[in-house]
Amino acid sequence: MQGDEARLLLGFPPNSRPTPSQVKAAYRKKVWESHPDLFPVHEKLSAESKFKLIAEAYACLRSGYKVSHGKKSLV
């Protein structure tokens, strides 16, 4: 997943530079809105795939911060 796509999934403009705390807050909000357990049975598969994309977007942006800011710790 590319950075622009990840930012869009979390609700940021494509070329924006959200802070790590903004990314975390957006991730938590999107996870809450799309968690599969909140949907009826017939919508769970769709919600689950969206949930996984959001998690992937968050991981993409977090790893970008670790690489671009030189952090080597596991969080």
UniProtKB/TrEMBL annotation:
Membrane-spanning residues: none
UniProt-listed Gene3D superfamilies: DnaJ domain
Gene Ontology MF terms in the entry: protein folding chaperone; protein-folding chaperone binding; unfolded protein binding
InterPro entries reported in the protein's UniProt record: DnaJ_domain (IPR001623), J_dom_sf (IPR036869)
Name of the gene this protein is made from: LOC111314032
Region (Disordered): 1-20
Organism, scientific name: Durio zibethinus
Database matches in Pfam families: DnaJ (PF00226)
Protein name in the entry: Protein CAJ1-like isoform X3
Record's GO cellular component terms: cytoplasm; nucleus
Source species taxonomy: Eukaryota, Viridiplantae, Streptophyta, Embryophyta, Tracheophyta
Domain J stretches: 5-66
